[in-house]
Design a protein that fits this description.
two-stranded antiparallel sheet, single chain, 5 strands, 3-stranded antiparallel beta sheet, alpha+beta, elongated, 37% helix, Ribosomal Protein L22, Chain A
Length: 111
């Protein structure tokens, strides 16, 4: 049985989130949380650990599952909407600034 959690519209670029997601995909929950605890990308790892804990809480809420046997079955990071901003430049012109967002989807399975 799969237990899912998601986090949407995060103000982190999808590429940075994917780098951290690749570290924990396919690992057990305890191992994944330990990796995220000591990951140098603090902002993304904090968000990912929160989503993992939410998925574990969803599994615990359902009951009839041992939390220690769970592992990260799938961890997907997708593109979210881009916030488009402008910065003033010389001679009355402007430069576009794209503030990217992402969505994170976590699915846990039993071993």
């Amino acid at each position: 049985m799969d237990f899912k959690a998601s986090l949407k519209y995060i103000r982190v670029t999808p590429r940075k989130a994917m780098l951290v997601a690749d570290l924990v995909r396919g690992r057990s929950i305890n191992e994944a949380l330990n990796i995220l605890k000591f990951c140098p990308r603090r902002r993304v790892s904090g968000l990912l650990s929160g989503v993992l804990r939410s998925a574990v809480a969803n599994a615990d809420q359902k009951g009839s599952v041992d939390v220690d046997t769970l592992y990260v079955k799938s961890l997907q990071v997708g593109n979210g909407p881009i916030l488009k901003r402008f910065r003033a430049r010389a001679k009355g012109s402007a430069t576009r600034i794209n503030k990217k967002t992402c969505h994170i989807f976590v699915s846990l399975g039993e071993r």
